[in-house]
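Suppose you are handed a protein chain with no further information: no name, no annotation, nothing but its sequence. What can you learn? This example shows the usual starting point.
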Amino acid sequence: MLEPLGLEADAETVYRLLLEQPDWSVEDMAAHLNLAPAAVHEALDALADLRLLVPSDDGPGRLLPVSPEVGLAALLSRKELELHSLQRQMDSTRAAVADLTTRYGGRKQYAPEMVHTLFGLDAVRNRLAELAEAARTECLSFFPGGSQLPDTMESSKPLDQLALERGVALRTLYQDSFRNDPATLQYVRWLASLGGQTRTVPSLPMLMVLVDREVALVPIDPDDGRRGALELRSHGVVAALHVLFERFWASAQPWHEPDQPDDRGLTRRDRELLTLLASGHTDEYISRKLGLSLRTVRRSASALMERLQARSRFEAGVLAVRAGWL
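A reasonable first move is to predict its three-dimensional structure. Written in structure tokens, the prediction is:
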């Protein structure tokens, strides 16, 4: 209990006993506390060093305990002074840290930020432009949803062209639904003519951009890209996202190859739609996930359920598994 004042457990026990039995000898205390006499002597030396024992006038070599209101109060005051001194040192140190942060905190060579938040679409677009200009080896992207905005594609063309001319590899993954948008198809054809690579998958988890395996941009809120993005520079996180991209890329289809039905008459989009239906997702969610209109989702779902002769979406999922569709 009194360790903050410098009293170890044995010393505190001996001090408490002496306050009750000041006339006891070392042997008496050792026997009562079940301690070795040497341990009692060591405790007495510690108490003397802390000025909790004083010589007795009754006999040479005899020590008496100092009362707690004097001895312990003095120790407490001494510790409080030490704490005040330490607090002043911490205040000075905090001021020095604040000064260094103000002067050098923004310089990445001193303290590179692992996560930086970009609020709003304008901040994200500006940062993407900076990263594209600085890219050295590769730029990898997920673009979920359907078509891109025409002004976005036009504004990115000069940066894409300069990057490809510098030898930067551009690989982009879209969702299959982009194939229904003429403007996006035209942009992809233009990109391919310069050496850019594009593939498609039925669905993507979120918007993502990876540059030189050093930095990644992902949305603050995957369901609302307008809120902004997180710029990540953690090597472990970026490496994991790179593995994620490569997994999707390996299973994706080059943009110029149509999504042909398999031997069961199912396209990749059909299988993805069945998986989402069987998982109990709503039409609205599936529409956002696949980048399709709500009407297209409902029409496709009805056609698949009719083929399976299913009375519910859950049953459609069960029958699709039994039929080997999934």
